[in-house]
Amino acid sequence: MDDITPDLLLEGVGPALMFREYRVFDEIGSTNAYLKALPSDEPPGVVAVADYQTMGRGREGRSWVAPPGAAIQCSVLLRPPLPPDRIYLLTTACALAVRSAIAPFVREEPRLKWPNDVMLGGRKVCGVLTETEIMPSGRARAVVGFGVNVREAPPARVAPDAGCVRQFAIRPVTRLEVLVRALREYDRLLVRLYAGDLEGVWRAWRSSLETLRRRVVVRGYGGGDEVAGWAADVALDGALILETEDGERRRVYAGEAIERA
To answer: Tell me, what DSSP letter sits at residue 49?
Structure first.
């Protein structure tokens, strides 16, 4: 792998409370799938990074496609002490961490699109996928995966709205720089979450959402339906609160929010 190794990550990220081991692959099916397949007694804190994924996945069963050497493809194994209805904060914290990581390198402010996409100039440069299972102990085991298009966006036929950091960069930037900054910030936010500052992380996510105070259509709501309305707010449980044209307020928990005129 050209610019990311376990030693470079150890040196760059420095002391981390949530990450204990870095495993780097030239090629893998999926970093999320790799961590999910680890034994149930594997301690948390494993970070898997791949130069290329042959079976990368995004939300709602979509594929995540990135040419070799073009993107960050990373997953972390966690055992969060969070209530089930607050597990989503692992995802939002990851999106916030990526947003913070790329901000110094680009000419405009990165924003978040509900629920967890990182956007630059109206284009998606990062997505986050969290997969959770409840262990026999009753504790959750979560794998949080994120992909960041750094050097190149996927083909338009595959992801027409995608972009990459390099398109907006004020200077050359490497994947290692972005990944180190993202992991440092994610470690800091996870410490806050685990210490009980759930509302503080939620507020940071809420203030970064470009989706709010816009008219949107959410696709995928209710198993394939669409719901349109004014994106009024987000709830503490992660729901997008929509005010529909008939005055009804709906809470939407999943789907893709697309701005409309």
So the answer is: E
Count the domains in the chain.
2
Pull the structure tokens for residue 69: 């050497």
Q: What is the pLDDT, as a whole number, of residue 64? A: 61
Distance of CA 159 to CAs 58, 63, 100, 122, Å?
Answer: 12, 10, 24, 13
Contacts 24+ apart (CB under 8 A), 172-175: 173/102, 173/105, 174/3, 174/150, 175/3, 175/4, 175/71, 175/72, 175/148, 175/150, 175/151
- Residue 96 in any domain: the answer is yes
H/E segment holding residue 112: strand 111-113
pLDDT at 55: 78
Q: Does residue 119 lie in a domain region?
A: yes
Task: Answer whether residue 19 shows pLDDT above 90.
Answer: yes
- pTM, two decimal places: 0.93
Query: What gap in Å lies between CA 120 and CA 57, rounded to an integer?
Result: 21
Q: What is the pLDDT of residue 227?
A: 86
Tokens of 201: 């992380």
Establish if 247 belongs to a structural domain: yes
* Residues 184 and 232 reside in one and the same domain: no
Between CA 189 and CA 187 the distance in angstroms is 6
CB atoms under 10 Å from CB of 220, counted, come to: 16
Query: Which residue segment(s) compose the domain that 99 sits in?
Result: 6-208
